[in-house]
């Protein structure tokens, strides 16, 4: 049995005040981490479970028919737990518990992992992330640092905290939610893309060392997914005035890029359930792949990069797609669908 003992001093007092024999509400115990994993269950810790992909992965694993997972769903603000708790249903308090965790804080990360019994985590899923979109001239260096602090250093912080125990045990699986934007640059997503590229480079390097300790490392690389991520970004974009950017750049961003981006989301978007199913497949595989594209429509785009090491093919293709064929985006999408023949599809991880 693996026991979690996350008990704050205030909670300790409250539990002492309870009349003896009175059953503490299950909900409180789940929040404090007192729920125990059964032997044989894998302990999975997931970051960023208040919404979107993280929430869905937590629920999918906690509701596993064979109850193979004990899920520690974390979020930086537990006041946002209601959506997750509702989606988890009766798994909450049984195979799913909650802990607070801000991936940008050393202290929060340490405290969270310290409160897991023996710091024993079998599978770490680094999902928390933030987006950033718009002309570079109008984005402050502080905003850019926030993206790196979450998307890159957040993952590094988590791995540093969890890896030593996995090394000792000579077992573990680290999963990182990357993106196709970790493989291919996308105009006006410059800094977000850079943060995912940084993580891909970090993981590619770490994977070799970790293999020696029998620790697996896998990246999930979704294309567009319909979550609050997209909504939050579009809301931010609508509010922005783009100070510092010239009129032409703002026009390309608003009138050319944004409509194309909306088209792409409509034509290619997956659901958080799709990504959760792909992630479950990856952690259940006997020989999980290092890279896992979830959307076969992206394989030709990624292939362009490897087909021409000078980079010309991908830069020119993206230029043409955006500025010359933008109004024909729907046709372009259909061509892409034809291009994704079955041999390319086999290279992706299918949600079905
Ligand atoms: N949606 C897409 O199109 C797409 C495509 C490819 C990859 N991804 C990646 O998928 C991951 C999840 O994104 P999503 O689409 O599910 O977006 P989402 O719904 O916005 O979820 C992001 C989650 O990360 C959390 N988070 C942000 N900063 C955090 C921090 N400092 N500490 C802990 N948690 C933090 C958010 O918590 P709060 O509620 O507290 O903000 C939220 O729970 C991200 O890494 C993203 O880069 C998304």
TrEMBL record:
Pfam families: adh_short
GO BP terms: estrogen biosynthetic process; retinol metabolic process
Residues binding substrate, per UniProt: 179
Recorded GO MF terms: all-trans-retinol dehydrogenase (NAD+) activity; estradiol 17-beta-dehydrogenase [NAD(P)+] activity
Domain spans labelled Ketoreductase: 42-228
Superkingdom per UniProt: Eukaryota
Ligand binding (NADP(+)): 48-76, 102, 196
Region feature Disordered, mapped onto this chain: 1-26
Keyword Lipid metabolism among UniProt keywords: yes
Keywords per UniProt: Lipid metabolism, Oxidoreductase
Family matches, as CDD domains: type1_17beta-HSD-like_SDR_c (cd09806)
UniProt keyword annotation of Secreted present: no
InterPro entries (alphabetical): 17beta_DH, KR_dom, NAD(P)-bd_dom_sf, Sc_DH/Rdtase_CS, SDR_fam
Active site: 192 (proton acceptor)
GO cellular component, one term: cytosol
Family in the record: Belongs to the short-chain dehydrogenases/reductases (SDR) family.
Designated name of the protein: Retinol dehydrogenase 8-like
Organism: Salarias fasciatus (Jewelled blenny)
Name of encoding gene: rdh8a
């Amino acid at each position: 049995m693996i026991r979690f003992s996350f008990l704050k001093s205030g909670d300790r007092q409250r539990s002492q005040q309870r009349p003896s024999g009175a059953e503490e509400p299950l909900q409180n115990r789940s929040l404090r981490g007192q729920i125990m994993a059964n032997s044989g269950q894998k302990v999975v810790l997931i970051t960023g479970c208040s919404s979107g992909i993280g929430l869905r992965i937590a629920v999918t694993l906690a509701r596993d028919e064979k109850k193979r997972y004990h899920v520690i769903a974390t979020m930086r603000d537990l006041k946002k737990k209601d959506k997750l708790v509702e989606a988890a249903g009766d798994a909450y308090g049984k195979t799913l518990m909650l802990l607070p965790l801000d991936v940008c804080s050393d202290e929060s990360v340490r405290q969270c992992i310290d409160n897991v019994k023996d710091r024993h985590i079998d599978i770490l899923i680094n999902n928390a992330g933030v987006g950033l979109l718009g002309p570079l001239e109008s984005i402050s260096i502080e905003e850019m640092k926030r993206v790196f602090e979450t998307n890159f250093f957040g993952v590094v912080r988590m791995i540093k905290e969890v890896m030593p125990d996995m090394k000792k045990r000579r077992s573990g699986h680290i999963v990182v939610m990357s993106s196709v934007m970790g493989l291919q640059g996308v105009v006006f997503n410059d800094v977000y893309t850079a943060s995912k590229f940084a993580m891909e480079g970090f993981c590619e390097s770490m994977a070799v060392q970790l293999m020696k300790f029998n620790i697996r490392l896998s990246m999930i690389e979704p294309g567009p997914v319909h979550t609050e991520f997209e909504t939050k970004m579009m809301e931010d974009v609508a509010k922005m005035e783009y100070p510092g950017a010239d009129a032409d750049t703002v026009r390309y961003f608003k009138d050319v890029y944004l409509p194309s981006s909306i088209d792409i989301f409509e034509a290619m978007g997956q659901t958080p359930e799709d990504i959760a199913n792909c992630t479950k497949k990856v952690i259940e595989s006997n020989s999980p792949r290092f890279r896992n594209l979830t959307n076969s429509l992206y394989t030709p785009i990624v292939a362009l990069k490897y087909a021409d090491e000078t980079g010309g093919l991908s830069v020119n293709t993206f230029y043409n797609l955006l500025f010359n064929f933008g109004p024909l985006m729907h046709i372009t999408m259909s061509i892409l669908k034809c291009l994704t023949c079955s041999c390319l599809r086999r290279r992706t991880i299918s949600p079905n």
